[in-house]
Each structure stands twice: as structure tokens, then as C-alpha cells.
Amino acid sequence: MKRVMILGLIVLLLISASCSEISNNKVHNVGLLVEGTIHDQTWGKSGYLGLLKIKEELGVDVFFKEGIDSQFAVNAAVEEFSNNDVNLIFGHSNVFGKYFSKIHDQYPDIRFVYFNGITHDDNITSMNFNSHAMGFFAGMVASAMTTTNHVGVIGTFSWQQEIDGFYEGAKYQNPNVKVSIQYVNSWDDIDRALEIYDQLKQNNVDVFYPTGDSYTIPVINAIKEDGHFAIGYVTDQIEIGKSTILTSTIQHVDRLYLKAAQLMESGELSGEILEFDFKEGVITLGTFSELVPNQVQQEVQHAVERYIETGKLPNEIK
């Protein structure tokens, strides 16, 4: 009789554990933390659109907070989210890796996801865009379209993979092109970014690749006013100026947000570093300006297709 009772208790415990596991996998509500604002028309906005996509697809409640740029602010926001039954929290930049690593043990039932970092743990996942290739294709277009033989990057930080990629792509397309690169060292310092733009313009740069957040659109507007060319960044920015934006390098953050939620629901969102690229459909090129010759468009599109198929960029194929 005792053996039967013990076996029954074991079965109940196994069922309870199984139900708990299922419950933990189920997305309840979702939260988003943004360092800056969701109104920047680039990176911040893309995160908010991802949040809305999860809301639409999974039918859960979503919450977001802007200006979260310190450990104290993260701690307070996560506690508030937890009280609202949020069990999936996105930190919308790589800085959130260090913030989440200090508090994740206090919230074992919450899955923390952030972007483009190397920190991970049992309930912390880094979802990384492999952005080298998108920069390469942007460089190809810029190099093909410059009339001064001088293109420029208004970068944010030197670790951005797309900047090295841009240099390589521009040089692949035209070994004689000059590539100038300067760094704002802030995602949002508009004044500094415009100052760099003026310096590059004075040095005869006529195609620009601004790779920031809040400063990207003001810089593109200045480029448009001066009659030069730009490569859009993160979102498809062709509507800003069809005679200004040659194409855009798009990171479909909304698709990646939904992917994370779906992986969580299926129990496959592990605590590791996950990488995504053109092959997964989360990075693409945007609409080409009609000013870009068909021959150039076709060459770049063929290079993208071959990269998806082989994993090799044009300069890696012998």
C-alpha cells in the first residue's frame, strides 16, 4: 500500500513538473526596454514594431519603457514587468546583456533576450545580427554610384560589423575607391553626426552610410538637401528620398522578435548566442532607387542570392 502511494506521489510530481515546464514555455506577456526612444524611425521603432507583431500573432499584452539606460532603471522596469505577468523581456541593444546578467537569477521564470552581445545564461539569450554581409552589399552599391570616387561611413562604434563589411564591399567593387570612416561614439548624438557629415562632404564624399539610431534620419535629410546619395540603415528608408536613398540595409527586428517568442513557446529558446543573417530572412536589402542602373542592381542581387546559397561573399569566391 505504501509502495502504491509512493508511486502515485511520484506520478503527481512528474505531472506537476511537466505542467510547470509547459507553463514556463508559454509566453504570458511581453516587455520591451529601450535605451532611447521608439520614435527614432530606425532601431528603436523597429523594436516597437516587433513588440506589436508579437501582440498580433500571440494575442498577449505588451509593455514598453523608453530611456532605460542604467542598472537602476532596468531593475525597476523588470520588477514592474514581473508584477504584470511579463515572462519575456527584450532589452533593445547589446548593453542590456550586462544589466540582465546582474538580476536574471532573481527572476528564474522570465526569459531575457537582448541583441548583438556575448553575454548569455540559463535564461538570457543574445540574438545577434550578422551584419558584415549587409555592409558589404551596401559598399558595393556606394562604390558603383560615386562620381567623386570617395564614399564615407558615419559610424557609431568601431565594433559594428557592417562598417568593416562596407569597406570590403566598396573595395571589391572598385579597388581604387577611397573609403573614409568616422565614428560618432553615440547612437543619438545628432550634432556630432552632422559635424562629421560636413567634414566628409568637404572632403568630396558623395555617397554616405550613416549607421546610427536617432542621428540617421537628420543626416539623411542633410544629404538629401545637398543632393548627395545615402544608403539607408535598419529600415527601408527609400521614402525619405527616392533620388537620395540608393538602397537600404534592413534588419527585420520585428521578425526576430516574433521568432524569439515562437522559440520560447516551443521550448527552444535556449540560453545562448543565436546568429541571424540573410539566410534566415531577417536581413535584406531594401528598395533600389531608379537611379541605380539595372546592371548594378542585378549584380548586387545576384551576389546576395549566391551568399544565401553558399555563405560566401563575392570576395571569398575564387
Based on the model shown, name its key terms:
single chain, disordered N terminus, about 20% strand, about 325 residues, 12 strands, six-stranded mixed beta sheet, six-stranded parallel beta sheet, alpha/beta
Low-pLDDT regions? 1-23
- Number of β-strand runs: 12
Radius of gyration, Cα only, in angstroms? 23 Å
Largest beta-sheet details: 6 strands, parallel
What's the average pLDDT?
91
Task: Describe this protein's structure.
With 318 residues, the chain is α/β, with parallel strands linked by helices. 44% of the residues lie in helices and 19% in strands. It has helices spanning 2-25, 43-58, 71-83, 96-101, 132-145, 161-173, 190-202, 216-226, 253-265, 294-310, and strands at residues 29-33, 62-65, 86-91, 111-115, 124-129, 150-155, 178-183, 207-210, 229-234, 245-251, 273-276, 283-285. It has a 6-stranded parallel β-sheet, sandwiched between helices. Helix 2 packs parallel to helix 9 and helix 7 (190-202) packs parallel to helix 8. It is globular. 44% of the residues are buried.
In brief:
The protein has about 325 residues and is of the alpha/beta class.
List the helices and strands and how they pair.
Blueprint: H1 2-25, E1 29-33, H2 43-58, E2 62-65, H3 71-83, E3 86-91, H4 96-101, E4 111-115, E5 124-129, H5 132-145, E6 150-155, H6 161-173, E7 178-183, H7 190-202, E8 207-210, H8 216-226, E9 229-234, E10 245-251, H9 253-265, E11 273-276, E12 283-285, H10 294-310
Parallel strand pairs: 1-2, 1-3, 3-4, 4-5, 5-11, 6-7, 6-8, 8-9, 9-10
Antiparallel strand pairs: 10-12
